[in-house]
Amino acid sequence: MVSTQLLARVRYACLLVPLVTVLAGCDLSVGNLTERATEEWTRSYPLAAGGEIRIGNTNGRVEVEGVEGATTVEIKAEKIARSATETGAKELLPRITIREDAQPDRVTVETEKMNGIMIGAAFEVRYHVRAPKGAVVNVTTTNGGIGLTALSGKIIAHTTNGGVTAKELTGGIEARSTNGGVSIDFAQLGTERVSARTTNGGVTIMLPDSAKADVTARCTNGGIIVSPDLTLAVTEQSRRRLEGRLNGGGTSIDLQTTNGGVRIKPRQPAEKAG
């Protein structure tokens, strides 16, 4: 006969297995993680004209800067491990792994997820990328912002907890965030579609005075403001939606937020000069 104590152990094990499965790979950081260990990771890859760069991250900011005339992708990543003790931080650091796959027309770099449960520890990887100006850029991160500067190729930038900030763009972009704002500054508006969406945060777009675009802006809890310095012919307008043609119409621009406002304004003199 099976004892009552044995049956209790079996039931406990059955409950524990799914719990461990759910928590596997989670970061359960508890307490003051005052100690840290860092390591720098650098790579350089050749990239064909019009090639693609993919950066996938979990925790940490990603910055991509376009370089005129460049034919290589330069990546500098800072691995950061945090713990309550110096020993804990140093032991965690080697577990931060970056996977790379370099092809002539595509470079993929991704922070690998950790297996198991982390209690009293945390990690992040901060990427700074210098890329050919016309490269296609695809960046995703979960906990961290995305910064983009001086790029002319198509851009996809998705983050969950963090904002997207883009400056001096001349190509199309699809920017997405859940908890964070989206701000995009165009040195010149091309023909590729522009899309900026977030759930909790504002959306701001800055355009040259001469930009030609078909604009759609939507919000749920917030306002839509268009600078009077821009020549926008409004075709539909309500509290939560606006459609119009900027300087006669042209490139498709779609701006959307749930909890936040939408701002459409011209570039400032400092931005034009910068």
Report on the structure:
The model is unreliable at 1-30 (pLDDT under 50). Helix content is 12%, strand content 55%. A hairpin with a 2-residue loop joins strand 6 (98-103) and strand 7 (106-111). The protein is globular. It is mainly beta. The protein has helices at 4-23, 86-92, 269-273, and strands at 27-28, 35-46, 52-56, 62-67, 72-83, 98-103, 106-111, 118-119, 121-132, 136-143, 146-149, 155-161, 164-169, 173-179, 182-186, 194-200, 203-207, 213-221, 224-226, 232-237, 241-246, 251-259, 262-266.
Structural class: mainly beta
General shape: globular
Q: Tell me the number of structural domains.
A: 2
> What string gives the helices and strands in order?
HEEEEEHEEEEEEEEEEEEEEEEEEH
How is the biggest beta sheet arranged?
11 strands, mixed
User: Number of DSSP helices?
Assistant: 3
Widest sheet: strand ordering = 6-7-3-10-12-14-16-22-18-21-20
Assess the beta-strand content as a share of residues: over 45%
Q: In terms of per-residue confidence, which ranges show pLDDT below 50 for 5 or more consecutive residues?
A: 1-30
Helix percent reads: 10-25%
Radius of gyration: 23 Å
Distance between the termini: 82 Å
Task: Give the overall average pLDDT.
Answer: 88
What is the strand tally? 23
